[in-house]
Design goal:
Blueprint: H1 2-14, H2 16-25, H3 35-130, E1 134-139, E2 144-147, H4 149-155, H5 159-162, H6 167-170, H7 178-187, E3 191-197, E4 201-210, E5 217-224, H8 226-273, H9 278-311, E6 317-319, H10 321-335, E7 348-353, E8 360-362, H11 364-383, E9 393-401, E10 404-411, H12 418-423, H13 446-455, E11 459-465, E12 469-477
Domain PAS: 120-167
InterPro entries: HATPase_C_sf (IPR036890), HATPase_dom (IPR003594), His_kinase_dom (IPR005467), HisK_dim/P_dom (IPR003661), HisK_dim/P_sf (IPR036097), PAS (IPR000014), PAS-like_dom_sf (IPR035965), PAS_fold (IPR013767)
GO molecular function, one term: ATP binding
Length: 479
């Protein structure tokens, strides 16, 4: 601002009007200009102006110096702030790097944990899928949360369709009620239910309530123990059969001597009676003949018991089914008769055997007992027929079909009712209430059914009509 006024003043002084007015001031009375005064005045003015200029420059320089000093202070302050900010930024970067390293470590650890969790889940899933038991997970509302491979195999329902659905809507045939599941959840303890259908399947169903989970639910295990039960029953039956064999042998040995003595005494009496006149001994001879026949029949029965007792145990052997049937027919002729007076030897036997029948692996004596039981059953049914002129007939058919040996034993005696067909293969001692306990034990074929189905892995069934007769169907494997 000072420089501005200085130059304005200088410009005014050197301008023509200003110069003229000043020169007029220094003129003498005679009109001459006193240039000495002009020079002195001008010098003074210049000195003043120079002083002003010097002062102006001094103050300007001083002001610039102060400004520079302030700027330097500001610069130093800014540099300090920059250094502080840089140090803070470096520290922040260091902390950020450390945080990133920690985060990367946590991420790596999380990934490792996630991988382990996935592996554990996959391992547990494989265990559940590979379990031989049917496993079902349920919520408290009955919604399926787990459905393993065994459940898919038994039910035929894939897990994709079962998961998230109600158990009793998806698998309504399950032998488990919602009340049983609720009972286990309420009591907070496992509940085991046994379900079986004799001769077909046996299941152990266990309900495990989930107690430590946030949501209540249950795990259901269905164990198919059919083979275990059948194996246990087979062992029991084998023990029974072994005991029966021992009992049969004991009875045979105990009964055999007195029977032999009776037959000997009968023969002695017969020989003595031959010396007497025929008229006096005719009736006695007839009685002796009957006693002799009955004694021989008893001996045949005892011999059959001995053969059966000696045959127990050991391996199965190849045998001809025709030979077994024929031997059973001959034995039946020797030992079978019914109270009605019908003897097995009076029954007409029709044989229908296919040619070139193969031998089969079997327990021949046990199969002989089966056929003897079937012939006994037929003999009783034929003896009940009251029709005049009725000819008792037993038809035996043997053939090979579908890698199995098929045998049919058919008779034209009195048939059995549908109700009796339900009990005929049941044992005498049964837990089934009702008329099953009243069914004649002599008509039961449970032992024959056991020999065919358990000892020979075959099948034994019956079809009957009260007015036509009965047919027993046997299937035996060829190998």
């Amino acid at each position: 601002m000072t420089n501005k006024y200085f130059w304005l003043l200088t410009s005014w002084l050197i301008s023509q009007p200003a110069s003229a007015s000043i020169i007029e001031y220094f003129r003498e009375e005679d009109g001459h200009t006193n240039w000495q005064y002009v020079a002195n005045w001008s010098s003074g003015i210049l000195i003043v102006l120079l002083s002003i200029t010097v002062l102006t420059l001094f103050f300007s320089r001083r002001q610039a110096h102060l400004a520079n000093k302030a700027l330097e202070a500001i610069r130093q302050e800014l540099e300090e702030r920059v250094r502080e900010r840089t140090a803070t930024l470096d520290e922040s970067n260091r902390l950020l790097q450390e945080a990133n390293q920690l985060l990367q470590g946590e991420i790596a650890q999380h990934r490792e944990t996630a991988n382990r969790l996935r592996n554990s889940e996959s391992y547990i899933r494989d265990i559940l899928s590979s379990m031989p038991l049917m496993l079902i997970g349920l919520t408290s509302d009955g919604v399926i949360t787990q459905w393993n491979r065994r459940a898919e195999e038994i039910t035929g329902i894939p897990a994709t369709k079962a998961l998230g659905t109600n158990l009793w809507q998806t698998y309504p045939t399950i032998t488990l009620s919602q009340q049983q599941v609720k009972r286990s959840l309420q009591e907070k303890k496992p509940l085991t239910i046994k379900h079986s259908q004799r001769g077909q399947y046996h299941f152990d169903i266990t309900i495990y309530p989930l107690r430590e989970q946030a949501e209540t639910g249950a795990v259901i295990l269905v164990d198919d123990v059919t083979q275990h039960i059948l194996a246990a029953n087979m062992l029991i039956q084998r023990d029974k059969m072994s005991s029966m064999g021992e009992l049969a042998a004991t009875m045979a040995h105990d009964i055999n001597p007195p029977l032999h003595q009776i037959l000997t005494d009968v023969q002695t009496v017969k020989d003595a009676l031959q010396l007497q006149p025929p008229s006096s001994v005719e009736n006695i001879t007839r009685l002796m003949d009957e006693a002799d026949a009955n004694g021989k029949q008893a001996l045949a029965i005892i011999q059959n018991l001995l053969d059966f007792a000696r045959s127990r145990g050991g391996e199965r052997h190849q045998a001809s089914i025709i030979d077994i049937i024929e031997h059973s027919l001959q034995l039946a002729k020797d030992v079978l008769s019914v109270p009605s007076g019908l003897h097995f030897r009076d029954i007409s036997i029709e044989r229908h055997y296919n040619q070139n029948l193969p031998d089969i692996p079997c327990y021949a004596t046990e199969l002989q007992q089966v056929f003897l039981s079937l012939f006994r059953h037929a003999c009783h049914a034929l003896g009940q027929v009251q029709k005049a002129g009725h000819t008792p007939i037993i038809r035996i058919q043997v053939m090979v079909c579908y890698d199995m040996l098929w045998i049919k034993v058919q008779h034209n005696g009195v048939g059995i009712t549908n109700e009796e067909q339900q009990y005929i293969f049941e044992p005498f001692f049964t837990h089934t209430p009702g008329k099953a306990e009243d069914y004649d034990a002599g008509k039961r074929l449970s032992f024959s059914h056991f020999i065919i189905t358990e000892q020979h892995q075959g099948q034994l069934a019956v079809t009957s009509d009260l007015n036509v007769g009965t047919t027993f169907h046997l299937q035996l494997p060829l190998t």
